[in-house]
Design a protein that fits this description.
four-stranded antiparallel beta sheet, 40% helix, single chain, binds iron/sulfur cluster, Immunoglobulin-like
Length: 473
């Protein structure tokens, strides 16, 4: 069966009756294919290894949602630090805007997990089992023989195994590796929530990489829809030099341009489009396969490479290439603001998180000649090493002290690295000194005496005429 001819009036991969047209892109090699392969393998290695590489005693990336503790490249954040995410997401969002305005869909072609896993893993498995593009097309149209059943079962079995592996690696960002290992060796019913999630994710990945493929980029990806609003005629993208290539003709034909209409650029396109149909085509994921394909043809013809190349629509039209435009400047400024605020905010993250609550029960107790307020302290040590923290009450009330404090009025609490403790703290005040509710400030010091964090909480006692206290028993 002849491959379908691309048209700008329709999506190649969807037939007129709405059914799916499966594209079988031809193999391609060249400088971009090699570079993309290196980048792809590097990104896969990063994805696989991040949960294994320890930094400051925790995995490089470990999003411990169950304990609300997030380890990011040596930095430990707790739920209270998540406001930082706003600046992180803003910085990353504007970085993507800036990159798209400057370099088009470079993310899609080079770094998107959809493209990386599809091109570097699933298409490679398919190429190995089913052969090159003509062989795959023949197999698709062949009747179901035992050989075809075996070939399909083998391919889809490997696809399923790869999907399971990708899903398990994904879950290892949220569950520690020893815990994941233990889960994998226990009955699914013991961890049914995680089990169902991993199975569902594996199923989605399998469906996506085995069948849905480029449809995700064409009909589902929101970034793909957004890009037309982010780019302009000066954005660098993969394109065809019409002024040089047209009119098409056989090599040596009089007045013919450089395009010999060999259709190699179409055959290698994973989304089934013809880059020569011009403009910014929605389906183009900037995978550069057509650049390599055409460069090979040009090299064979002893013509300069670059008939299909990275360039702007303005440059293809013979105008000057402009890097600095209002949109690139605005996106760059917003990107730098987001990035700088995030970098600054990161330096302000405290190594300890501290919260204090009043203990359930009476608001205060009479203890001989003293009034007692009971609090409940929660301390999270975000460092790897055990921390000895000193708790102190700061107040101008004479005689106010922490029960069990040392001669300096401080209570020392040891918290193991990356752990939290919850401990009661009792504040006492001679009854004779109490003259109505007042606020006390509890501070946490490190061993050098520096104040790390502090919180304010009221000290309550019996109601007296003229004071503002409520609810004393
Ligand atoms: S590969 Fe190059 S020469 Fe061949 S059809 Fe495409 S643009 Fe023309
Ligand atoms: S037109 Fe070229 S760059 Fe775009 S998806 Fe097809 S092969 Fe990749």
């Amino acid at each position: 069966m002849k491959p379908k001819a691309p048209s700008r009036d329709s999506v190649t991969t969807i037939n007129e009756d709405g059914s799916r047209y499966i594209v079988h892109p031809s193999d391609v090699s060249g400088r971009f294919a090699l570079l993309r392969r290196l980048v792809g393998w590097l990104l896969i290695a990063v994805y696989v290894l991040l949960p294994w590489i320890p930094i400051n005693g925790a995995p490089a990336v470990f999003l411990n949602v169950a304990e609300r503790r997030f380890h990011l490249l040596g930095l430990t954040l707790v739920a209270q630090d998540l406001w930082l995410l706003f600046f992180c997401i803003t910085g990353l969002g504007f970085t993507l805007f800036f990159t798209t305005a400057l370099l088009g869909r470079i993310w899609c072609g080079w770094a998107c997990p959809q493209t990386v896993f599809l091109d570097m893993v699933f298409r490679r498995v398919e190429r190995l089992i089913d052969g090159d593009a003509p062989a795959r097309r023949r197999l698709e149209n062949a009747p179901w023989t035992p050989a075809k059943v075996f070939q399909r079962a083998l391919k889809h079995g490997i696809f399923l195994a790869c999907s399971l592996a990708v899903a398990h690696i994904f879950i290892s960002y949220f569950v520690s590796l020893p815990k994941l290992y233990a889960m994998m060796h226990s009955a699914p019913a013991q961890n049914w929530g995680v089990f169902v999630f991993v199975m569902a994710l594996s199923g989605i990945l399998y469906f996506n990489f085995a069948w849905f493929r480029e449809q995700f980029c064409i009909v589902m990806c929101p970034y793909g829809r957004l890009q037309s609003a982010l780019v302009d005629d000066d954005t660098i993208n993969v394109g065809y030099d019409e002024r040089r290539g047209e009119p098409r003709g056989k090599p040596g034909s009089a007045n013919a341009g450089d395009c010999i209409d060999c259709r190699r650029c179409v055959q290698v396109c994973p989304t089934g489009i013809d880059i020569r149909q011009g403009g910014l085509q929605l389906e183009c994921i900037a995978c550069t396969a057509c650049i390599d394909a055409c460069d090979q043809v040009m090299t064979r013809l002893h013509r300069p490479r670059g008939l299909v190349r990275y360039d702007s629509l303005s440059a293809f039209g013979g105008k000057k290439r402009r890097i600095l435009r209002p949109r690139t400047v605005v996106y760059a400024v917003l990107m730098l603001i987001g990035g700088s605020v995030f970098s600054f905010a990161i330096t302000k993250v405290k190594p300890v998180t501290f919260s204090i609550l009043r203990m359930p029960g009476a608001p205060y107790y009479r203890d001989g000649e003293e009034l007692r307020n009971n609090y409940f302290l929660r301390l999270i040590n975000k460092r790897v090493e055990t921390g000895a923290f000193e708790i102190e009450i700061v107040s101008s009330e004479p005689g106010l002290h922490i029960a069990g404090a040392d001669a300096n009025g401080r209570l020392t609490v040891a918290v193991p690295g990356n752990q939290e403790i919850q401990t009661p703290v009792v504040a006492q005040l001679p009854k004779s000194e109490f003259d109505g509710q007042f606020d006390i400030r509890m501070t946490v010091h490190d061993q050098t005496g520096s104040v790390l964090v502090s919180r304010t909480i009221p000290f309550l006692g019996p109601f007296r005429q003229g004071n503002t206290q409520r609810g004393a028993p």
